[in-house]
Amino acid sequence: MSNSQRPSGAFSRQSPVMKVVTLLIAAVIAGVWWYTSRGNSTGPDSEAAKAPAVAEVGDCVQNKGSDGSPDMEVIGCSSSEADYKVASKFESECEPGQSQYQETRRGRVQFEMCLTPVEPAK
In angstroms, rounded to a whole number, what is the distance separating the alpha carbons of residues 100 and 122? Predict the structure, then answer.
């Protein structure tokens, strides 16, 4: 093949193994992007919609963690898994019988709310 008949471009000059490696790297990058971006929805079932920071007064939450290390998630009040109802937000003191929940970042309180226990359905 003379120089005038060779395909131009860096990709065409690579060996077949390098082409496969390049395509595999591109596929991995695309897969990582897809995996990390799929939870970035703002719909009602998204992770962001379940975060306790978006809970409003009257919403219910479930503690998926423990009392010492709570992991709160907003859920419907009609659910039998609802543990607490949000009584107030951004309060530094809660009423007797309420629990206080705080989320901190780097030792600073990001938000807090007072929670009233939900009575189990009979």
Answer: 26
